[in-house]
């Protein structure tokens, strides 16, 4: 008689994917805190709960790991932040939703990884630097297009050139989350306030009410 099989037992592919995800998240935290040059692969493996051999079984070297982190951050951020925001109709609401969603995403303690790598590789020819700049350029182009569309439909008021406004939006959002990542619920509220200010949108209703009370007193 054939013994029953345990269908709940993870397959080898599932275990490998779980190991990879754990290593990528640990590496993202390490890159966010230490940068590429000072990243210790042994420490990444230990923080993920695996041996260095397990890490090298997944990634040949630090460059391959860093490139995988960049792709992983892009994929998870797109799925958790950008795609839900793009379901909204008004361009202004998309940009506000991205700001709020980014604040929530950065509670995972990977807030600095993209900005840290972009600064570290600025002006250098390196595969990791190129990957970061390509993603940043694509995001800026998307933001600039939403700003153009928002100004056309009246949801975003006129202002500086769309590309400059998009650059300010990204820079302010990244800088804010480096300092406020995880400080909920204020991270989300302040991210939206920042986005409204850069885009020239009216302040939150709570801010307007507070200003009215202050003026009345």
UniProtKB/TrEMBL annotation:
Origin species:
Stackebrandtia nassauensis (strain DSM 44728 / CIP 108903 / NRRL B-16338 / NBRC 102104 / LLR-40K-21)
Question: Which residues are in the HTH tetR-type domain?
Answer: 17-77
Q: Signal sequence span per UniProt? A: none
Q: Which SUPFAM superfamilies match?
A: Homeodomain-like, Tetracyclin repressor-like, C-terminal domain
Q: Name one Pfam family in it.
A: TetR_N
Origin: domain of life = Bacteria
Asked if the record carries the keyword DNA damage, the reply is: no
**UniProt protein name:** Transcriptional regulator, TetR family
Q: Which GO terms describe its molecular function?
A: DNA binding
Instruction: List the residue ranges forming a coiled coil, or say none.
Output: none
- InterPro entries to which the protein is assigned, alphabetical: Homeodomain-like_sf (IPR009057), HTH_TetR (IPR001647), Tet_transcr_reg_TetR-rel_C_sf (IPR036271)
- Specify whether Transcription is a keyword of the entry: yes
Q: Which residues bind DNA?
A: 40-59
């Amino acid at each position: 008689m054939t013994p029953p099989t345990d269908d709940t037992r993870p397959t080898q592919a599932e275990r490998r994917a779980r190991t990879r995800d754990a290593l990528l998240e640990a590496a993202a935290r390490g890159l966010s805190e230490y940068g590429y040059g000072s990243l210790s692969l042994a420490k990444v493996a230990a923080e993920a709960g695996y041996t260095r051999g397990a890490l090298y079984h997944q990634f040949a070297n630090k460059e391959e790991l860093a490139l995988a982190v960049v792709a992983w951050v892009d994929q998870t951020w797109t799925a958790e932040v950008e795609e839900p925001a793009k379901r909204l109709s008004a361009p202004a609401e998309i940009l506000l939703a991205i700001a709020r969603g980014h604040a929530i995403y950065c509670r995972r303690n990977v807030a600095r990884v993209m900005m840290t790598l972009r600064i570290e590789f600025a002006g250098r020819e390196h595969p990791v630097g190129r990957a970061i700049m390509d993603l940043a350029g694509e995001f800026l182009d998307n933001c600039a297009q939403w700003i153009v569309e928002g100004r056309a439909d009246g949801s975003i008021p006129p202002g500086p050139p769309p590309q400059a406004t998009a650059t300010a939006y990204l820079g302010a959002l990244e800088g804010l989350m480096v300092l406020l990542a995880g400080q909920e619920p204020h991270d989300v509220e302040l991210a939206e306030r920042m986005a409204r200010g850069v885009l020239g949108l009216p302040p939150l209703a709570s801010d307007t009410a507070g200003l009215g009370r202050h003026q009345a007193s």
